[in-house]
Amino acid sequence: MSGVAVVGGQRQRLRDLGGAGGGGGGGDELRHSDGPWMRAAGGAEALHTQLGPVKSELETAHEGVVAGTAGLEALTELGAVRESWQRRIEAARGECRSLAGNLRDVARAQGETNEAVRQSFAPVATRGGGQ
User: Fold this and answer.
1) Cα separation, 129 vs 121, whole angstroms
2) Distance between alpha carbon 107 and the CA centroid of its chain, in Å?
3) In this predicted model, which residue has the larger pLDDT, 20 or 47?
4) Residue 20, Ramachandran bin (φ over 0: left; ψ between -120 and 50: alpha; else beta)
């Protein structure tokens, strides 16, 4: 049963998916584009960059708090909250950096797979129109 797929509840052979005569051609070919993957990677990188100055901005915003609240119990809790946010910001930046690389890897791998599949069909396509 090699080359058989179930599509919409019906069995179809791979050659049937290529259009009339099974020769491929036409506009019914599955095509891959790395555009969406690369745009998503760019978005993840942009978010990584935008989060960069947030940690120092948070520190700057808390500088005056210590002087004005000396002796208050909430100061300790405020410091713990600030540290928690700093950890979260750094974790988010790291995740964005990692995600951008992974998305680019997917685009590259799909492109390589598509090329390998195309090349594997080349001998069949040259024999009598793929029949």
Assistant:
1) 11
2) 8
3) 47
4) beta
Smallest CA-to-CA distance from 86 within 119, 60, 107 is with 60
> How many Å apart are CA 57 and CA 47, to the nearest integer?
16
The dihedrals phi and psi of 67, each to the nearest 5 degrees, come to -65, -35
Cα 69 from Cα 126, distance rounded (Å)? 81
Residue 69 pLDDT: 66
pLDDT at residue 6, rounded to an integer = 47
Q: Which amino acid is at 105?
A: D
DSSP H or E run through 12: strand 10-13
Cross-strand bridge partners of residue 4: 13
